[in-house]
Amino acid sequence: MAAERVYKATGFTLFWRMMWARAYPRIIGALRERDWIFFETVLPLGTTAAFVFIYRGAGAPPEYTGFAVLGGAMTAFWLNVLWSMASQLYWDKDEGNLELYILSPGPLMAILLGMAIGGIFMATIRAVTIILLASLMFSVSYAISSVPLLFLVFFMTMAALYGMGMMFASLFLTSGREVWHLANLFQEPIYLVSGFYFPVNALGFWVATFASVIPLTLGMDAMRQIIFSNQVGLGFLPVELELLILTILAGLFLFGARLLLTTLENIGRREGRLTERRR
Amino acid sequence: MIASCAIETRDLRRVYKIRGTKKKSEPTERIALDGVNLQVRRGGLFGLLGPNGAGKTTLIKILATLLLPSSGTALVDGRDVTKDVTEIRRRISMVSGGETSGYGLLTVEENLWMFARFYGLDTAVAKERINHMLEVVGMADRRRSKIGDLSTGLRQKMNFVRGFISDPDILFLDEPTLGLDVTAARDVREFIKGWLRDHPDRTILLTTHYMAEADELCDRLAIIDNGKLLVEDTPAALKRSVQADSMFVLKVAPLGKPDTGDRIEDVAGVRRLTINDCDGYTELQMALAGEDALPGVLAHLSRRGAGLVALEKREPTLEDVFIQLVGRRLSESVEAT
Q1: Mean pLDDT confidence for B1-6
Q2: Could you count the other beta carbons within 10 Å of the beta carbon of residue A266?
Q3: Quick one: which H or E segment has residue B159?
Q4: Per-residue pLDDT for B196 more than 70?
């Protein structure tokens, strides 16, 4: 006699279950493995402290201490996007997980969104920890003009940033280069051109415009304008315009991620390269 | 839709383009599958036996929708692997030997839960199935172990459970006991047999280069070499096909190189011969046209001064079938790759 069949969800329910299942290792990892507290909180604090002392030594306005603290906190998201989003499918291919993702009946977008949700959770814990510790250490004072607007800007920055990370995941995988070279290539220069530790318009209009492709550039600029509202004239663009551009970028990147994933799977099935482990 | 065959291929062909090391060099072609025609009926275990590089994994990847065929047709559960991808994926699962999938910081049950959710299983159902299957494979006490702490054998057992947890109609097992010790490999085989007993309407396609494993598990099997399907039948029928020969294993004192024109193969009645030099003796595995050819062989050995240590008449094995079809031992093919 045939055994009873198990019910398997389809459509949106399957998408939802896949997404949270893939987010789970990251969420549980942030709570289970605590050694990140040293490596990803204390070490960025060192860089932040260096900028704070430089600003103080140079006699910069006290808000610049806050800029450095905000930038130090936001590095958590950039590092997460580079090393745990853009590089992740590459690592997953090596471990044999990519093959199982492709083999499962749900869309790969659910896997990438799950990775992004888990990544945002992990990086947010780190960023909040850095802000709390650095604010206490350097006595930073904040003048937030609108908390809802701040949350909205943060949300759209994350949507655009992680949308870009999802898109990079396919690009990094198909580039054929060792993934850590690519991640390293993007890491440090973006700290500079996106203005992690200083207002980006200090680099001039064209550099700032070019750097705006990275959502953190406009996101941090808008957040700086909202959090340090007593500093007038340091923003690159009006917050509302930056919010609009971030929304457009989020849409473009998410669309691009979906398109590239489809292309990636087609290449994988045609050439047989993407599901082959190298070990 | 119920297809008469679980798996069917027609003139299936897959060609890989291999790029050269120099940028401008033209890619060369390697034929992995060359006109494979296969029909696997619903229910039971079908084996695909062949050396490394024979095309087994390529065939499984095409059937599992991970790879496109270059030409020909492949149907899984009556659905086309090039078009009905999602429908096929809902019905299949795959486990490969030496798999390292999963996330090391998760426990065994968390990993299995994650993969169950990828197939849309409800959490309560998934947990019930995980607990039951971990009991069956003897891993209930390792439920809360991180998978990074598991031995190779335990990790492979966990991969097995992963393959079965989504309740597939058709399961692809690609060299499932590769690298496992004897005990773990036996446990895996017992698990497969038990699952098929409980699910007689499900189909497993197993690839292996272990003859004994194929003989023990498969209802039917096909032998594949160089991308071509050479034969397909039940293991018993395949062995019967070489039963016309008398199979002998002789152990003799170390046999030196023969003089020209004085080879054992040239003795009347010797159909096939493989010679293994072992520690202190030489083993001869031979297929003779009949038992009456044996005295001639013994006389030949005596003339060459190779004293007889042991003589055994044995039943034909799948290895004999492979040798008859391919002209070499499977183990030689595996070592050569």
Answers
A1: 73
A2: 12
A3: helix B152-165
A4: yes
What string of DSSP letters covers A238-263? -HHHHHHHHHHHHHHHHHHHHHHHHH
Confidence of residue A279 (pLDDT cuts 50, 70, 90): very low
Report the mean per-residue pLDDT for chain B.
87
Chain B residues 8-67 with a CB less than 8 Å from chain A: 16-17, 58, 61, 64-67
For residue A169, report the phi and psi dihedrals to the nearest 5 degrees. Answer: -55, -45
ipTM: 0.89
**B125 CB within 8 Å of a chain A CB:** yes
Q: Which of A18, A105, A270 sits opposite B86 (nearest CB)?
A: A105
Q: Please answer yes or no on whether A8 and B90 come within 8 Å at the CB atom.
A: yes
Least confident piece of the model among A106-115, A128-137, B118-127, B239-248: B239-248
Taking residues A151-180, what's their average pLDDT? Answer: 87
Contact A93/B at CB under 8 A: no
Chain A residues with beta carbon closer than 8 angstroms to that of B65: 103, 269
pLDDT band for position A177 (cuts 50, 70, 90): low
Domain ranges (residues) in chain B: 5-237, 246-315
Is the four-CA dihedral A37, A40, A46, A48 of positive or negative sign? Answer: negative
Is A273 in the B-facing interface, judged by CB distances under 8 Å? no
Could you tell me which CATH class the domain B5-237 is placed in?
Answer: alpha beta
CATH assignment, B246-315: 3.30.70.260
